[in-house]
Design brief:
The chain is α/β, with parallel strands linked by helices and 276 residues long. 38% of the residues lie in helices and 21% in strands. α2 (21-31) crosses α9 and α4 packs parallel to α5 (111-135).
Length: 276
């Protein structure tokens, strides 16, 4: 695998103006990343010339930039995808990650609405496929806590040259077994995300019983996910970026946590590393 870091690791600090994308490149390099998955939302203030300059600075740091768009919801989704494709080409990214924009739990019990979401994704990506091909950019749809494995296969089968951006842990959110999902979709995916998760109990006031529990995302190695079999399903060319969603403004902990995660992920999970 090729290991990198998503700019989402720095989202809160970027939005607070505590650092720039140039700073992110330096921190990603210091942590040992081989590439940066650039969420184009974080580069929205940059013109194309400035974006191209950022790509050159990444190259100077020994990094490659890969591009992420955002959600496909809404009537203007095709226009947004067209612009993301242009921006992906500017930074020399061979792929563009996008996501549907809904969460399966929000539509539980409404298979008609889930089917409508799938039709919308197919329509948007189908209308965008030719422009992406001409730009040398492959569209990848992330398994974003939304569709099932069968639904993803159906969506990809309905659109030419669209693949999957494979998040190894998101199946937890759609109540599926991550190992089964990863093994089923790995052949459709050249890139994806990895994170970890922990469970936090919500107890009643006297602590006698709990109301339930929450899933909290964290960096790989900080939670309870069984990562080795998921990593084993990926091929040598797979581009896997750490999605550090557990970040806060005023907390500059990305380099240390990323370095630990990337070292862990680089090991042979069977023969060379004791994970627990």
């Amino acid at each position: 695998m090729k290991l990198g870091a998503d700019t989402l690791c720095w989202h809160a600090r970027l939005e607070a103006g505590e650092l720039t994308l140039d700073d992110v490149l330096g921190e990603a390099r210091d942590a040992g990343a081989a590439f940066v998955q650039l969420n184009l939302h974080h580069a929205r203030a940059l013109g194309d010339r400035e974006l191209a300059a950022l790509a050159r600075r990444a190259e100077d740091e020994g990094l490659r930039l890969l591009a992420s768009g955002d959600f496909l919801r809404g009537a203007e989704a095709r226009d947004r995808v067209a612009r993301w494709i242009e921006r992906a080409a500017v930074v020399g990214s061979p792929l563009l990650r996008v996501a549907s924009g809904f969460y399966r739990a929000d539509l539980a019990g409404r298979p008609d609405l889930i089917a409508a979401e799938a039709d919308h994704v197919v329509a948007v990506l189908g209308a965008s496929a030719e422009a992406a091909t001409q730009a040398g950019v492959r569209l990848l749809l992330e398994n974003h806590s939304d569709f099932t494995v069968a639904e993803y296969r159906d969506i990809v089968d309905r659109i030419d040259d669209v693949g999957v951006f494979l998040d190894l842990i998101n199946p937890v959110s759609s109540l599926e077994d991550p190992r089964r999902v990863v093994e089923a979709l790995a052949q459709l995916a050249p890139a994806g995300h990895v994170k970890d998760y922990a469970l936090a109990s919500d107890f009643v006031e006297d602590g006698y019983h709990r109301r339930g529990f929450a899933v909290r995302w964290c960096y790989p190695g900080e939670g309870i996910a069984d990562l080795p079999p998921l990593l084993a399903a990926l091929d040598d060319d797979f581009m896997l970026s750490v999605e550090g969603l557990d970040n806060r403004a005023g907390v500059a902990d990305q380099v240390d946590r990323l370095r630990a995660s990337l070292r862990l992920l680089a090991q042979d999970p069977v023969n060379e590393f004791e994970w627990r």
